[in-house]
Write a structure and sequence with these properties.
The complex is a heterodimer of chains A (about 170) and B (about 200). Chain A has about 170 residues and is α/β, with parallel strands linked by helices. Helix content of chain A is about 50%, strand content about 15%. Chain A has a single domain (about 5-165), classed as 3-Layer(aba) Sandwich (Rossmann fold), CATH 3.40.50. In chain A, strands 2-1-3-4-6-5 form a six-stranded parallel sheet, sandwiched between helices. The longest helix of chain A has 18 residues, at about 135-150. Chain B has a six-stranded parallel sheet with strand order 2-1-3-4-8-7, sandwiched between helices. In chain B, strand 7 (about 130), helix 7 (about 135-145) and strand 8 (about 150-155) form a beta-alpha-beta unit. The chains are: A alpha/beta (about 170), B alpha/beta (about 200).
Chain lengths: ~170, ~200
């Protein structure tokens, strides 16, 4: 991810009211995770496993924060039970920014299956999501996805494709 | 000592503290002893400590207590590293370790073997780790943490057995709304969004 893309995401999150972000990094998310850690307006919690981050975000929401979770799609798949039991069942929102490995443009053969499963699992969980690839889509999509998460009291997702991550 | 004995000893000291309970009998026991809108009954095995961390970071001036179990924490050991690094001084993480999956008919957990959760907590960076094997040790250790101003991990070695209490009559959705409304009121916060009717436009 280019630094200007990371900066645009951080600024858009703040504009959307997000003040608390849990992250699990990956090569493509590195600049975003570093930028989040350096921003004093956002409480940044690096986690050891993605479902842990979902629990932390849910607790932060109950305490009045406006949380988001940054992770790769492998981590999203790992978090499905946490999302179902901690967020969807009681009605707790969390905005998820999901890096999409294994989508179009993927050069690593090992990511193909996780890539192919990501959208069907989001759909199976009835999680509303938007796919983002172009710079100008970042700000409005973050704003609108956060709006829906808060009004619907449900998780929402933004799937960042390879174009956005490069 | 049993978990219910521990809870019964400390319940009278609770005021406006926030509590996150693990899945299983502990939520029914705690609700019977301390019915309060500041109790959050997590319906997930594993994330009790993470939920409590998020809450403690969001409200650093409120004491947050997590009543976790060994089976739950073993699912989420990494949370101890995250909690120690974040170091919320308002969080007391209590683990009732009965060395088995009691609510799932009692098969042994890893703590029935070689695993020592207090050692794991120390290794993850918790400076204040208390192990309690008797009720007086638990009472003394918990109250030190409860009255203190630092992050604590309390490892309570308990016997198997649940308190003779009724099932907590509280659905997840109901619990969420009651808890959030309580936080909104006590903290003067707006958490749940609401929209006016279009009929109000132009007034």
């Amino acid at each position: 991810m280019k630094r200007e893309v990371a900066a645009e995401i951080v600024d858009s999150l703040k504009e959307a009211g997000v003040d608390f972000v849990a992250t699990l990094t990956e090569a493509n998310l590195h600049d975003l995770v570093i930028a989040l850690g350096e921003d004093s307006a956002i409480h940044h919690v690096p986690v050891t496993r993605e479902e842990e981050g979902i629990g932390i975000c849910a607790g932060a929401y109950l305490g009045g924060k406006r949380p988001a979770m940054v992770m790769m799609n492998a981590g999203f798949l790992l978090s499905t039970n946490a999302l179902a039991t901690v967020c969807i069942h009681p009605g707790i929102p969390v905005l998820m920014l999901i890096g999409h490995s294994g989508g179009v443009g993927e050069e690593n053969a090992g990511h193909a299956t996780v890539g192919a499963l990501t959208e069907p699992v989001l759909q199976a969980m009835h999680i509303v999501y938007e796919k983002v690839g172009r710079f100008e889509e970042i700000r409005p999509t973050i704003r609108d996805s956060q709006m829906l998460a808060r009004s619907s009291r449900r998780p929402t997702a933004i799937v960042l494709n390879k174009q956005a991550l490069r | 000592m049993k978990r219910y004995d521990c809870l019964r000893v400390i319940a009278p000291h609770f005021g406006d503290e926030l509590v996150v309970t693990n899945l299983g009998a502990v939520r029914h026991e705690w609700q019977a002893l301390r019915p309060h809108h500041g109790n959050y009954h997590l319906q997930n095995l594993g994330l009790t400590s993470s939920m409590a961390l998020g809450l403690a970071l969001a409200l650093p001036h409120r004491r947050v207590v997590a009543f976790d179990g060994d089976g739950s924490l073993l699912l989420n050991l990494g949370s101890l590293a995250t909690i120690a690094n974040q170091h919320p001084k308002n969080l007391v993480h209590v683990v009732f370790d009965n060395e088995c999956y009691e609510s799932s008919r009692g098969a042994p957990t890893a703590t029935a073997g070689q695993a020592d959760l207090a050692a794991v907590a120390r290794g993850c960076g918790f400076a204040n780790v208390i192990t309690a094997k008797t009720l007086s040790e638990f009472d003394e250790g918990f109250m030190r943490a409860f009255r203190g101003n630092d992050l604590y991990f309390i490892h309570a070695k308990v016997e198997v057995g649940a308190g003779d209490v009724p099932a907590a009559a509280l659905d997840s959705q109901e619990n969420k709304y009651l808890f959030v409304r309580y936080i909104e009121k006590s903290e003067n916060l707006k958490i749940l969004t609401s929209t006016l009717s279009r009929a109000s436009e132009g007034k």
